[in-house]
Each structure stands twice: as structure tokens, then as C-alpha cells.
Amino acid sequence: MYRRMAAHQGPWDMIVIGGGATGAGIAVDAAARGYELLLLEQNDFGKGTSSRSTKLVHGGVRYLEQGNLSLVMEALKERGLLLQNAPHLVRNLAFVVPAYDWWESPFYGVGLKLYNLLAGKYGFGDSRILSREETLEKLPTINPEGLRGGVVYYDGQFDDARLLIDLLQTAGGLGATLLNYAQVTALDGHTVRVRDHIAGREFEAAGKVLINATGAFTDDVRRLAEPRSEAIIAPSQGVHLVFDRSFLASDHAIMVPHTSDGRVMFAIPWHGHTVVGTTDTPVPAAELEPVAMEQEVEFILQTASLYLARKPERSDVLSVFAGIRPLVREGGAGNTAALSRGHTIRLEPGGMMTICGGKWTTYRRMSEDGVNQAAILAGLPPVACVTASLRIQPPEPGDALLRAVRDEMAETVEDVLARRTRTLFLNAREALAQAPAVAKRMAVELNRDTDWEAQQVAAFRKVAGGYLLAP
Ligand SMILES: Cc1cc2nc3c(=O)[nH]c(=O)nc-3n(C[C@H](O)[C@H](O)[C@H](O)COP(=O)(O)OP(=O)(O)OC[C@H]3O[C@@H](n4cnc5c(N)ncnc54)[C@H](O)[C@@H]3O)c2cc1C
């Protein structure tokens, strides 16, 4: 990537700030159209929200309840396209909505029929009302007390950080220049000042258009251009707890449409574990390594214990991870659960384009809209978008650590254990145990000394501490 940078002459067609789902999607789209693109990520790719999602490729049953049919239809279509373009990463997952009240099965049965109808030719399977026996068969660990039956429906599941890395591999293969640990620290018109944390140097780069794709950090970057910019993001934190597989012991997920505070909660089988979440807690500002709040952890444990026969305890939690939703404010609404999940594109004073909001599922559509707008702003010749049918590159088989370091730009122990593999997200203690050996192997590959190894292990311990629950 440094060689590509050095060989590049003149301004880039597009410079993207931010290496999450939005930035990576734009990189693939722009590179596939033949535009020259530079992507700059301040930390590791996916360090922000894009590795911390519920890992669902979904239309969003909640938005259906809110009556936002166009958003649901768009997301269901994108779900179908992602399954077609990344079949190695997206799988069809059956969800069961358990019914404990007489009205729940018919009510959710009708709603979920509509959900499948809205998917049209992109449908993942027909929803169906289940008897009590069928529900218990599909969810052997569900709380049987008062259970009347349920409704089964189908949605998509993926590995968020893996899709991100594969998107970047695809973009790189199409000619995009992608740098992690490259933080934009200042803006001057169409020029960015960049601190390269790996090479320990600063440089400048100019683009025909700058694209701010920094998710929950959107306002920070907007304020580099115009310090008095009003905030447009209402950051909201979501937490997940990870347990052993035995808590669900099924290939089916549980979907609870209404928790005690009116939210949706999932218990999902993922990489041989059970992931339960999420919360929706407004927070004052975005952080790179957000930490779960005590009340969020308690809320998830309590809600899970209502639906699972074996009540999970704090000591059962293998990992806890938090992410920040980049929700776009609408007229200062106070409750972030009601804010739009649709995406927003805006032109900032000075000419930078900001693209934010949306969700993982719609990253491709969001990127298509973003590149269309950016090409106009940059005065580039229009080229049609091709990503609706563009295959996303599967990773080469082989040793995951060597691939991460040699091909996927992993620079730290955390990059390997959190985002090239998902060990930290699945089991923080296991990740801590692996850290010294990972550091040793990385040091050989990267030609680093034992001081580097020690410093890497220490830095990883600090981060991993946030994924462990205090007893
Ligand atoms: C708890 C939770 C659950 C979710 N579940 C789902 C789900 O199941 N399905 C779904 O479809 N969506 C889900 N989402 C939404 C989805 O994860 C997000 O919409 C998406 O990841 C946002 O991607 P992004 O690229 O806009 O932001 P991010 O992933 O946050 O990327 C922005 C990047 O910009 C970088 N950056 C910031 N400032 C600078 C700078 N100055 N210079 C360079 N780089 C910078 C950051 O380091 C960061 O990596 C969920 C979100 C949350 C929080």
C-alpha cells in the first residue's frame, strides 16, 4: 500500500476517511468503477462499530413495527444481494419468537408473514406458527413455563469483521489504496493531513472529493472542517454478552420482540457460542473502545433469564462487547431507539461529503449512493455502479495468523485476536491466554524484537480487560 501511495501522482479521485462498513463499501464500489481511491483508517479496519454489531443481515423486524416499510424492503433486498455476493459469509438463520401470551402467535405470525412478503424474490423462507411442542423441539433450552408456542421466521447472519476484511481485500484487488493506523488530524479544503501511526510520520494527501465515513465519529471529523458544526449524530451504545453454546444448544436463534423496556433482544448461535443482546443507551460521545455499563449487563442477564431455562450468571459470561450506533438526529428526538436507521448524505462547508447512519445490511446501497454523489462533487466522468452483482473475495485457506499478517494488514495482537479471528469477542480469557504466542509469531513475521512482543501483550491485556466482567 505504501508503494501504491508513492507511485500515485496528483490528487486522488476520492479520499475516504474511515475504514468501517461504510468506508470499505465505498472503496469497493469506487474501485470497481475505476476511480482512484485512498482510504484512511485511524486505527485498525473495523475497530469502530463495524466489528461490534449483532451480526445480522436483516430487514429489521423492529422497523416493520415502526411502519417503515421502505426501509425494511430496501434492507431485505440488500440481504438477498449479500447472500448472492458473499455466500461464504452469509447464512440463512431460523429465528423463533416464543409466545407466552395467547395473542402473540397470531400477532407476530401476521407481522412476520408481511416481513417475508416484503422480501419478494429475495425471501429467505416462509414464516410459520409453531405449536408448543415444535417450539420446544427447536429451542430445547427455552423457559417452558407458560410457553404456548411460537413463530419461526428466517433472516441472515454473518461475521461483521470478516466481511469488512474481505471487502477491503476485494477493494485492494480492484486497485484501491487502503491504510490502517492512518489518522486524519486536519483538513484544509480538499487536502487531509494524516498521522501514520505505524511509520511514525505525517503526510498530506489531496482528493478531488473528501468523504467523511467515520460513523459515530462523524461530528469530530466535520469539526475539523468547521469547528462550529452542530452535531448530527446521536451516539447510542449497544452491548452484547457472549455465553457458551449450551445456553441455546440449538441452530435456531431466539427473537424477543418486546423486552421490559420495549426493545428487541436476540439470543443467537454464533461461531459455536451464544450471543445475547443488545441494549440501546444514549451516550455523550463516541469512543474507540466503549465499555459496557453495569446496568446494560444486568438488563441483558435479567432478560435472558426470563427466556432461558438455565439462568445465565455473571460468571457464565465469556465476553462482553459494546458498540456505538451512528444514529442520525432527527429534530432532536430524545429517544434514540426511535431515530432513523436510514442513511444520510450531506455536503459540508468546504466541500467535504459526509455519509453516515444506515446499518451493516445496507452498506452496499449506502456506498452506491455515496459514490454516485461523490463522483458528481469530484467532477468525475459518470460510471455505472456494478456492486449489485460483484462477488466479494473469500479468504485464502490456510494459517489464519499468517494470512492476517501477510495479506490482511494486521499490525497488532489485538488486530489478530479481535478482528482477523474473533477470539476476543467469543472468549476474552481464551484470547488473553493466546496473546503471548500470537505476539511471538507476529514478531517473527514482522521482524520485531522481544520488547515489541512484551509491549503488544501488555496493550492487549489492557483492551481485553474491557471484555471481561468483574465478578
Ligand atoms: C450494538 C450494535 C448492533 C448492531 N447490529 C447490527 C446488525 O445486526 N445488523 C446490521 O445491519 N447493522 C447493525 N448495526 C449497525 C452497524 O454496525 C453500523 O451501522 C455500521 O457498522 C456503521 O459502519 P460505519 O463504517 O459507518 O462506522 P464505523 O464502523 O464506526 O467506522 C468508522 C471508522 O472511522 C474511523 N475514524 C474516525 N475518525 C477518524 C479519523 N480522524 N481518521 C481516520 N479514521 C477515522 C474509526 O476508527 C472507525 O473505524 C449495529 C450497531 C450496533 C452499535
Characterise this structure.
There is one protein chain. The relative contact order is 0.16. The chain folds into 3 domains: 2-50 and 161-230 and 337-389, 3-Layer(bba) Sandwich (FAD/NAD(P)-binding domain), CATH 3.50.50; 60-157 and 233-328, D-Amino Acid Oxidase, Chain A, domain 2 (2-Layer Sandwich), CATH 3.30.9.10; 400-465, no CATH class. The protein has 471 residues and is α+β, with helices and mostly antiparallel strands. It is built from 15 helices and 19 strands. Helix 2 (21-32) crosses helix 10 (363-378) and helix 12 (413-420) crosses helix 14 (428-446). It is globular. The N and C termini lie far apart (44 Å). The strands form 3 sheets. Strands 3, 4, 5, 6, 12, 13, 14, 15, 16 and 17 form a 10-stranded mixed sheet that branches. The structure holds flavin-adenine dinucleotide. Residues 17-23, 40-43, 47-50, 52-56, 58, 183-184, 213-217, 221, 238, 278, 323-326, 358-361 line the site of flavin-adenine dinucleotide (FAD). Flavin-adenine dinucleotide is lined by residues 17-23, 40-43, 47-50, 52-56, 58, 183-184, 213-217, 221, 238, 278, 323-326, 358-361.
Task: Tag the structure with descriptive keywords.
6-stranded mixed β-sheet; alpha+beta; 10-stranded mixed β-sheet; FAD/NAD(P)-binding domain; 471 residues
